[in-house]
Write a structure and sequence with these properties.
Elements (H helix, E strand, L loop, with lengths): L57 H4 L14 E4 L11 E2 L1 H7 L9 E4 L9 E4 L1 E2 L1 H9 L3 E4 L5
Parallel strand pairs: 1-3, 2-4, 3-5, 4-6
Length: about 150
């Protein structure tokens, strides 16, 4: 049986490296295949891939609108119907949501939305909650406690 490590390469797949600047007999001496003068013949020369030949670059041509708030804090979104995986009467907070896999471990804020039905009596502690989610938790006999985090 032949293992993958001992398979021979296809013919033409493994080519020898082009050795340039090794004398006139090699066919690639003197200018070493770079031609004569100019930016591309110099060491370290060349242009970056997005250079447009002196034309106004794309990132400067397109219009700029709005701004990005660098202090924005993202919320992990959890819907009410996802809370049915918890036992009746349990406390639902960030740690328990992470253990159930409903929230990523890197996220630190949770917002509860009111999509779906809840048929468990739960105590929910989240950072933000929609009005429909509060209504559905109270209809199921649960308690909602919104945590307020500063900064």
């Amino acid at each position: 049986m032949v293992d993958l490590a001992s398979l021979p390469a296809d013919s033409g797949a493994a080519k020898n490296r082009k050795r340039v600047g090794r004398g006139p007999g090699s066919g690639n001496s003197k200018t070493a295949g770079r031609g004569h003068k100019g930016q591309k013949s110099r060491s370290g020369g060349g242009i970056h891939p997005w250079f447009e030949g002196g034309q106004m670059p794309l990132q400067r041509r397109i219009p700029k609108r709005g701004f990005t708030n660098i202090f924005r804090r993202e919320f992990a979104i959890v819907n009410v119907h996802q809370l049915n995986c918890f036992e009746d009467g349990s406390i639902v907070d960030l740690v328990s949501l992470q253990q159930q896999g409903l929230v990523n471990t890197s996220e630190d804020r949770v917002k509860l939305l009111g999509n779906g039905l809840l048929n468990k009596k739960l105590t929910v502690r989240v950072d933000a909650c929609s009005a429909t989610a509060v209504e559905k938790i109270k209809q199921a006999g649960g308690v909602i406690e919104e945590e307020t985090k500063l900064a």
